[in-house]
Structure formats: C-alpha cells, structure tokens
Amino acid sequence: MEFIVCKFGGTSVATKETLQQIAHILDLKPNRRCVVVSAPGKAKGVSVKVTDLLIKATQKALANQDASAEISGVKDRFRGIYEPLGLKKDVVEAVLEDFDARISAPRDHAGKFRDLVVAGGEDVNARLFAEFLKHTGKKATYVSPKDAGMIVTPTFGDAQPIDEIALKLAGLKKICSQQIVVFPGFFGVTREGDVATFSRGGSDLTGSILAEALDAVEYENWTDVDGIFSANPNTVENPLQIPALTYKEMRELSYIGFNVLHEEAVRPIMRKKIPIRLRNTFNLDNPGTLILSERLPSQRDVTGIASGGGYCSFTLQKFLMNREKGFVRRLLSILEDLNLSYEHCPSGVDNISIILDQNQLKPEDVNNIIRLIDVTLKPDDIKAEFGIALVAVVGEGLLHKIGVLSQSAAALSNAGVNIKMCNQGSSEISMIFGIDASDETKAVNALYQEFFK
Ligand code: ASP
Q1: What's the fold here for domain 304-452?
Q2: Fewer CB within 10 Å, N- or C-terminus of the chain?
Q3: Model pTM score
C-alpha cells in the first residue's frame, strides 16, 4: 500500500469538532495511514496553545514556583476535548497523569526538563486521539517516538534528526499496513533516551521525516488555511492561491515573509521527491497547494511576491576596493566575530553593502561594526541604514526569461518606489529588491498587479 502521511496542526486538533473532522478526513482515503498530531492550539474562546501553557509551566517550575495552575489548565483542556467525544473518564485521566510525572521529573538539566514537559502536549494528544479513533471503530494505534526510532540530537529545544533516521523508522511500514498510526509531532528521543523537541512548529518536521521513512506517496500538511497565496493576503486584496510550486520556490518565498512550513521540514521530503500538499482541514473542497520537486508546465513564470521588513545595511565606499585582496573576507569575518549572519552582499566597483536582519543586533553591535570596519578596512566612507524592507519576485520561470527585471523595476518606479538594492542570485529563482520599509505595501501591490493581473 502507498501511504499518505497527514500532519494536523494545532488549530486542526483544537476542539472535539475538529477531531471529528479529522476522523472524517481519514475515512475519505483509506491510505491515510500515518497521522501526526500537534498539541491543541488556539480555538474559538481559547486563546492559549497547550504548548505555550506547558512552556510557562516549565519556566515556573525551573524558578521553583508553583506550576500547578498551568498543569491543571492543560489537563482541563484535554478533558474538555476528549470527554465529550465519548472517551471514558478513567481512560482520559490515566493518560493525563503523564503530565504529573513530567512536571515532577529532575530539573538539574533545564533543557532536558523543559523538553520533557513541553513534548507532553503532542504525546498526550496522540495517545488520546488514537483512543478516540478506536472508539469510533477504526483500527488505530499510538506509536511512541522512542519505540519507533525517532532518534534526534541532544540539542534540547532545537533537536535535529540523526542522518540514518529513515532506516531507524523503517519498522513503521509494517504497522501502517495493518492500521492507522497516530504519532506525536514535535519531538524525538536522543540516543541516551532523553526526550528532545524540535524548534517551534516542529511537528511539520516529524511529518516530513515519517513521509521519508514510509516512502509515502504524499505528505499532507493540514492547517486552517486553503494553501499558499501568491502574495500576503494582509498586503494584497484577495491574492490568487498558488496551485503548485516547487520546493525551491517555497524556500525562497518563506525566506522573507511567507510562513508556510517549518524551515527544516522540506529536507527529508526533498531527498525522496515526495510531494507535499497543504490542505485546509475546514475546507475540503479546496485542493490546497501542492509542493513538488519539479516545476509543472502549467505554472506561471512568477509564483509569488514575498516581502518582509526589519533589515539594515552597512554600505562602504573605498576607492580601488576591487584591487584589495581579501576585502570581503575581512568584512564578513567582522560579522562572524560578532556572531552575526548576513543576508545579502550587493557590490559595485568601489562600494559594497551588507544587508543584515536588524533583529539580531544587540544595541552595542552597530557601533562595534562601524568601528571594526573603520579600523580593519579603512573605507573612505561608511553608512548605516535601518528600516529596509526586502521584496522578492519568486519563480523558477525566471530562469532564462528575458525582461522580468525590467518589468519589476518599471512596476516599482511607476508606483513611486525607490529601489535601494537589487539582487538576483545566480540560480535566477528570485529577484530581491531592497526598499524603504514605508514603501513595502505599495511595492508588493505594484508587483502583484504586474505579474498576476
Ligand atoms: N506544538 C508545537 C508548537 O506550538 C509544535 C507544533 O505544533 O508544530 O510549536
């Protein structure tokens, strides 16, 4: 059987009704055999995610404060979802006791303790959801990441799957061929047996790892939106939904602004070229957005327009800069020494700019960067600028296509937007413009009109 791995995000598992909807979704395709669940997220009338409550509980516990209110809040949340679904009280309570064990675990290693408690949201949800599926007459079982072989690095709060993870998890195929597997997202177990979570939103990564291990025909990622749109719906009115795009295009779009999948979730899937389909749990009529390894002939040349603010630039002028050996290396090592990463580095004959995400800067960094550049590189001039937005025109169709840059530049200039920087990587998948942050909305709308209307 060719399995579909389905991951359901926080809002899809937030209430009794949404869980019933998932059971219905599973009925629609019998090969939806591997279900990854997040912890219950926000819902109507519920403003806190279970994961956030658990994080608060660990913070309190680590500060030797009483975390019982948070733990009770989490338990009540699960009771409120699963008891009305018909699960027996004692079955629910037996699973919920797990939270007491977690919060009472040793606290000598803060990261280990935190991950153990926080992972409880997904783990308990997977166990209870499997019980619910059984209760509805389906053949289903909870599988623990430990038993399955979801082995991760001991980098608590930011664990990574080990290289040979697909092999470790291969045993899941047999279980999936017999019944529906319910697997908790967001965490794995280290070789030493400690629970370690991925970074936030990491259930996407769990789904992707399982899709690779099961050689799935498709990885369905179910959320509460119809799919990916060609521009941010908060910036452009009613942007078109993207029917299909490539992994690379998604990476470029999510680099600035597009919040699609957890960044690391594409890697395992890419290795086996498994399609990802983003679907809306609450709108089954919409086919969603398909993410593939290769471009479809039906795709537009430009797939989407992404944008994001919060960047700054340092621009250096130095006469005969091009003849000075090691100039850029020394410039970048200044940033490296200050533990800063850079985004772009456009250059001219006698000038170079480095564009950084300004959120990573500590207050003292700006002066330090300028001082160190002055001393090390002796530029004729150096200028720092803040409040820059980046706007990207993304599409694999840009490859070898003539005129997209001139079309984009004309659209921006007609809208009265000044281009401060323009960068097209040699992959020719995206064209990035640096503009004044106050022009961001205007620029995105102008580019959207140009390529999508
Ligand atoms: N529950 C975790 C979070 O809120 C992981 C996830 O939902 O993907 O980040």
Answers
A1: VC0802-like (3.30.2130)
A2: C
A3: 0.91
